[in-house]
């Protein structure tokens, strides 16, 4: 579907040469324009071909399908993180290695780009999943939860990719710097390393873990709040009619308070962890110098100043970036688990498979298609015979019972019934949205168009709403 804003200019990054890509000089024209006159959405370039959600979604979907297949074969649970890793790890590691040799801007930009791609691919996969959810799946999820997944949870991918490479960079930096420090203060190095170990591994790892746990709790509260808010907006007429504003206001305030409470706790942990990293360098230096003097060393300015530089390096890798990597990783794992649960919801049987349904309600296709072709009365557009269906798993009375209809092509058929009698459900059965438990359905090769009882528009222009993703054909459109 085309977007509301049409971007005219192609992305200069795509036609840029290797050096320009590394130093992002191709973006300078855009920066200059932004500096001179400010940028609006229309000034932005089109997304790169390789960043389009369709393509990235295909890539991730393929990996996810493979995961599902493997899990089915081995009888385990499919893992969304494995699908993500197998789709993006090569790209990400290459960025890490390449950027390790270059400077920090490129490091952040290119890694951030992988994060962006992971986010786009995940959103695309979830979007495809929403279209495939069946009634069971639908009942287990709320619009609010999906909004939360597609806005908050996927944002973790952007952040985690910026720092994740430090998880392997840190173990390389520590021995190298320790060796250099050893040249100056010998055994006193151990004192510095002990402090680093205590702070990085014990304290920071504990804090990251807490952050992950809290992130899970925040996500749950946000789901709950967004769910209540969307129900409230939908039922606002009833609330107004019964003058229920005050109790509902209290309910929303309570939910917000609980959510803010957890956000506050995470912020405190983040604040403490940042504050800790500021002290680290001095604390390491202090312990190394004290240990050196206690061991009989003679402290001199050239030793102290060299140590300051080395510990500066250590502090960046161990106490700033590494804890951030751990914290974001913990939060991302929570998000991945939530996305995974969403992706595992029950799916609809593809509509084109519902051509013929036998008396037990099971769907046949493939090799049985030939028999179906023969059995299907050719001139009939739509035949339902003895169809029963229900929205509930184990209903006392099914929504539709033993329905038999024949509608010829071009025939005008009206269906009348009480409110909630099942008129819309009948159409859902024909569409394949509600699987029948009994009976036969044949569309007779007909193509069906459906206008829903409740009209809706998506956020775009009127023309885009009318075209619904199809290309613009002036004569047809004007008709
Ligand atoms: N998506 C759904 N999930 C669960 N139950 C549903 C769903 N849609 C309809 N039902 C239930 O199925 C029954 C039939 O509803 P349906 O909407 O088909 O009636 P209708 O004849 O179209 O009513 P109306 O005249 O109000 O349009 C109702 O009891 C309704 O609660
Ligand atoms: Mg209806």
Automatic annotation (TrEMBL):
InterPro entries: ABC1_TM_dom, ABC1_TM_sf, ABC_transporter-like_ATP-bd, ABC_transporter_C-like, P-loop_NTPase. Signal peptide: none annotated. GO terms for cellular component: membrane. The keyword Ion transport does not apply. Residues 92-330 form the ABC transmembrane type-1 domain. GO terms for molecular function: ABC-type transporter activity; ATP binding; ATP hydrolysis activity. It comes from the Eukaryota. Keywords: ATP-binding, Membrane, Nucleotide-binding, Transmembrane, Transmembrane helix, Transport. The keyword ATP-binding applies. The chain crosses the membrane at residues 89-109, 160-181, 187-207, 272-295, 307-329. It holds the Pfam family ABC_tran. PANTHER family: ATP-BINDING CASSETTE SUB-FAMILY C, FI20190P1. This is ATP-binding cassette sub-family C member 4.
């Amino acid at each position: 579907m085309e977007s509301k804003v049409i971007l005219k200019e192609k992305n200069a990054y795509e036609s840029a040469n290797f050096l320009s890509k590394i130093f992002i000089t191709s973006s300078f024209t855009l920066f200059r324009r932004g500096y001179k006159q400010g940028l609006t959405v229309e000034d932005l370039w089109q997304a790169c071909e390789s960043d389009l959600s369709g393509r990235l979604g295909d890539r991730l979907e393929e990996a996810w399908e493979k995961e599902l297949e493997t899990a089915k074969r081995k009888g385990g649970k499919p893992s969304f993180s494995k699908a993500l890793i197998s789709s993006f790890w090569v790209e990400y590691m290459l960025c890490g290695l390449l950027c390790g040799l270059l400077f920090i801007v490129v490091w952040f930009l290119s890694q951030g780009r992988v994060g962006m791609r992971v986010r786009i691919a995940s959103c695309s996969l979830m979007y495809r999943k929403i279209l495939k959810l069946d009634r069971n799946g639908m009942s287990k999820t709320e619009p609010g939860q999906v909004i939360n997944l597609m806005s908050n949870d996927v944002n973790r991918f952007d952040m985690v990719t910026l720092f994740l490479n430090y998880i392997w960079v840190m173990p390389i930096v520590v021995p190298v710097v320790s060796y250099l420090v050893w040249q100056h203060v010998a055994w006193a190095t151990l004192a510095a390393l002990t402090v680093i170990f205590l702070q990085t591994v014990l304290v920071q790892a504990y804090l990251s873990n807490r952050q992950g746990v809290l992130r899970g709790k925040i996500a749950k509260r946000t789901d709950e709040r967004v769910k209540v808010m969307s129900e409230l907006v939908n039922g606002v007429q009833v609330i107004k009619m019964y003058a229920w504003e005050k109790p509902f206001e209290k309910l929303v305030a309570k939910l917000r308070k609980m959510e803010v409470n957890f956000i506050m706790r995470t912020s405190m942990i983040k604040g403490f962890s940042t504050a800790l990293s500021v002290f680290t360098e001095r604390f390491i230096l202090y312990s190394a110098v004290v240990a050196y003097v206690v061991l009989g060393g003679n402290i001199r300015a050239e030793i102290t100043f060299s140590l300051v530089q080395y510990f500066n390096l250590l502090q960046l890798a161990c106490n700033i970036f590494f804890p951030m990597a751990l914290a974001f990783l913990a939060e991302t794992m929570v998000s991945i688990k939530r996305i995974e649960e969403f992706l595992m919801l029950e799916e609809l049987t593809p509509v084109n498979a519902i051509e013929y349904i036998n008396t037990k309600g099971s769907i046949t296709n493939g090799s049985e298609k030939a028999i179906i072709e023969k059995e299907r009365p050719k001139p009939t557009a739509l035949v339902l015979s003895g169809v029963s269906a229900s929205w509930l798993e184990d209903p006392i009375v099914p929504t539709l019972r033993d329905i038999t209809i024949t509608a010829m092509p071009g025939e005008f058929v009206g269906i009348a019934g009480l409110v909630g009698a099942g008129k819309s459900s009948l159409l859902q059965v024909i569409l394949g949205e509600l699987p029948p438990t009994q009976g036969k359905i044949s569309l007779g090769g007909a193509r069906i168009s459906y206008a829903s009882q409740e009209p809706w528009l998506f956020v775009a222009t009127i023309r885009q709403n009318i075209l619904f993703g199809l290309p613009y054909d002036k004569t047809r459109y004007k008709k």
